[in-house]
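hi! just following up on the protien thing from before. the input was this:
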Amino acid sequence: MNIFKQKMLWLGVLIITLVLTVFGLAMMGSVLGSKPHDVPVALVVQDEPFDLPTGDKLAVGEMIKQQLTSNTQLPISWKIVGSEEEARKGLDSRDYYGALVLPKDLSAGVASMMGPAPAPATVQIISNEGMNAQAATVVKQGLGQVMKMVSLELSKSALEQLSQRSEQIPAATAAALLAPIQVKEEAVHPVGANNASGNAPGLLTQIMWIGSLVTAMILFLASNNAKKAAGRQWPAHLMQPVIGLVLIGAASGLIVWMANAWYGMELSHAADTWLFLWLSGSAFYLLQSMLLNWIGFPAMAILVLLMFFSMPILNMPVEFLSDATQNLLYSWTPLRFVAGGLREIMYFGGLDAVSSNAAVLWSIAGGCLVLLLAAGVKKGKAAESQNAASI
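and the predicted 3d structure came back as:
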């Protein structure tokens, strides 16, 4: 058949294969097969050893600490802290994804299982939901399973000792032996309602990137048309950043309003979210405009690929990513600084909680603004040289 002899057919097959390979790598390569590792979790051991009637000391807290820190199967990096207050400060400053607090009366509560009035102690598991809901869930589930195993071991040990004393076990003791350690779960910095299970910062980042990209393309084309019509390079070029930043401010406000009014996204710091999104969109817009003015339309391919490569990792904890993904993409993509900053504002107290992410975005915006203006100067000189040559 003649169709198989057409070069366009095989060129199309090659292009389709290349596109699927590139976008498959972008959307799946960085996240498929990712596993949590070295997830920082605070461990607070307040337990005081209990003196047994036999003269021995029961130190359940130290025993649990040894079991946890020596367990290489857990994807957790334990950070030993001295008090629950210190652990909570670490959660507020986004140092830990969770905390395990072993109370002072832990050993005493376990020892009471052997007496007539059992009083189980309560271990507290705190998950830092706002830092990353996915990681917080892993921490909560992992610690919950570990405490169930520890509780089961203590139950068996206590049951063996009681069976040696008497064949009959009081009903209250038997009931307490079912759970010698109670587990209380608490989530700090909750993500709020309709926040896409804590993924709202990543979604807002993607929407802002696309909005700023469309704005940059429209103003780039409009600026070029204005230069041709007026024959003056610099005034039309100067209006690109001025008009663009104003439009980005309005667009960021529209995004926040839509998220809250249309989709019911709970935003406890809506104004701060808008201001930071304006800064983020401005950095995006200036970066995109700078590339368009220096490279031209091929810059669109770079910007689109950057978006697709960055999208899968925006809502993933860095501890879930491979070393290659961290070093080659996560460490420098501008989208992750926006997602991180939005997470800090939305879940950790507004603009006061913003860390170095804002400084990075200010640096990107400032540097790209200078390069964008430099592109105008270069084009102006090139146009003047061309006019002089034609005369």
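Strands lie at 39-45, 50-51, 57-58, 76-81, 98-102, 121-128, 181-188.
The chain has two domains: 39-188, 196-390.
cheers
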